[in-house]
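Could someone model iron/sulfur cluster with this protein?
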Amino acid sequence: MADSQRIASYYLARGYKKSNSSKSASEIVINTCMIRQSAEDRVTGLVKNVTASRRPKPKIVITGCMVGMAARDETGKYLKALKKRMPEVDEFLPLAEVGFDYPALRSDVEHAWVPISNGCNNFCTFCVVPFTRGREVSRSFNDILDEIKEQTAKGCGEVTLLGQNVNSYGADLVKNNSKGFKLPSGRVVKPIIVKHLGRFRIPTLFPYLLEEVCKIKACPSKSSIAGRSGGLNKVKFISSNPWDFSDKLIEVIAKNPKIDRNIHLAVQSGDDQILKRMNRWYTGKEYLKLVEKIKNKIKDAQISTDIIVGFPGETKKQFANTVKLAKDANFAYAYVAKYSERPNTAASKAFPDNVPYREKEKRFHILNNLINQKGNPRTAVH
Ligand code: SF4
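Reply:
Sure, complex below.
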């Protein structure tokens, strides 16, 4: 959504006008996702649908993760495959061309999605994100605060800070400056480092960014928008990873009632062997300890999560460990996903996708029923 809002603004800046419907648009821009095969299939289907009955055919532009993957694939094979799969497409627009600099075109005044970083350095073996969005790049502290101040002045009361690994924000900003980082307020802070599995993670600035965001005051002239008391009254963030969830971050959340108490913390599996093969930096026990610490220190904290079932080689016993962890963690909800092999990932190269689809389905329903209850399936994965 945040990327699409910037893409829209990029087009307006080039003289385009927004159309009311894809049926009347002369040019259609499709922002793509490829976190799972089903997401890619939906893009192919959409391209066929919007072009099927239109003569002359509208110009079709594809952007987002599928193009990110093509842009980073030096062999050119992925782009060739995309062109073959969707011959209707006229242009492939890399998101990097749009960047952070365009102001988001928002229709919602009260809530703003605010990207704080883009890309990921973690290389979980199942995940295509480092290949589609590249390495993690943090937005400058000032840019983020300025955007939020601007939105607050327009009446925005709620922001969601976004990043693929939101709580490692700033790792690249402090790379050669691990002793101290000067915040826009002039305060010099020491980057936060977390230790997991006996190893130190990269230093981050995320807790300080959250603190600074919470200090943003209301604009007096907009103090009664939509019946609210005015100003920034809710700060959310997604998606955070357990290995960068520091004590300092817990302390900042506990102290600031504006920060949302629904904390999304992807676990992916409850089995240590599977976590290791996923290249995730914690054990099930460490994860549960973190959940306990968060719940003890932050009043009313609720934890939600992402879980993948049917990762290559996942045995019934290993799946049972995930079920046990889910019971122990008492998740508020979970996005449960069936493993889907993604191109270029380490898992796709090293581990055959050998859990039968029916078994994946079975495991999906067990966890979904356990955590989300019947009738409320959540099937996305971050
Ligand atoms: S699952 Fe999250 S942390 Fe892991 S590589 Fe993908 S985006 Fe990064």
